[in-house]
Write a sequence for this structure.
């Protein structure tokens, strides 16, 4: 496979999948190692309870119950794979063409059995809500510039902000998602950032991240 240039961003074919070249030449390229990531999560949860995970609590994992989750902002699949490791069935959408290529090639390169519970759609989350499957939770992690950050963002976030920019339709997506009537609508935010919409039913707050949870509408 040849390298790709999409809107000035270089995707390098290596080890059976695409990797995104950094904007700083000395930095390693960005890719999604699905099998390695899922195996890492599985090893961790052999020793640690899911109930200690804020994301698990936010989406409603409890006892044997595992919700069906729609992740409207797949990105590098970090949260999607974590929810998959919890034992959830996960649907995920992503609208940016560069990130779509990273996800699609990494999925073709992965073999983990949990992927039978993962469904990826390379399209706008807003339009996918018109055909949403039967799910319990909608998960939304919009891209925002956050003035409260005191440290430089990590490499992936720095590049994604330059590449994707702000999700200017975030409130529109939230309102449309609420009309679907999920049991929970979970919005991921930086800890000290403003609430995206209204007043959450409950908040789960970590060291740097906050999950705003809205119950049935």
């Amino acid at each position: 496979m040849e390298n790709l240039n999409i809107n000035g961003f270089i995707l390098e074919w290596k080890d059976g999948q695409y990797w995104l070249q950094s904007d700083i030449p000395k930095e390693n390229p960005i890719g999604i190692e699905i099998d390695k990531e899922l195996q890492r999560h599985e090893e961790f949860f052999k020793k640690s309870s899911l109930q200690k995970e804020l994301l698990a609590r936010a989406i409603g994992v409890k006892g044997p119950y595992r919700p069906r989750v729609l992740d409207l902002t797949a990105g590098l699949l970090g949260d999607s794979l974590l929810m998959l490791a919890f034992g959830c069935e996960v649907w995920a959408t992503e609208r940016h063409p560069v990130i779509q290529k990273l996800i699609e090639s990494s999925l073709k390169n992965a073999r983990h059995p949990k992927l039978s519970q993962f469904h990826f759609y390379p399209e706008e989350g807003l339009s996918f809500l018109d055909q949403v499957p039967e799910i319990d939770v909608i998960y939304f992690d919009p891209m925002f510039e956050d003035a409260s950050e005191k440290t430089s963002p990590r490499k992936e976030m720095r590049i994604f902000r330059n590449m994707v920019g702000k999700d200017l339709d975030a409130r529109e997506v939230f309102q449309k998602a609420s009309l679907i009537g999920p049991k929970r609508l979970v919005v991921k935010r930086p800890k000290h950032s403003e609430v995206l919409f209204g007043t959450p039913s409950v908040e789960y707050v970590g060291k740097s991240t906050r999950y705003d949870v809205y119950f049935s509408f």
In short: The first helix runs from residue 34 to 45. Residues 26 and 155 are 12 Å apart (CA to CA).
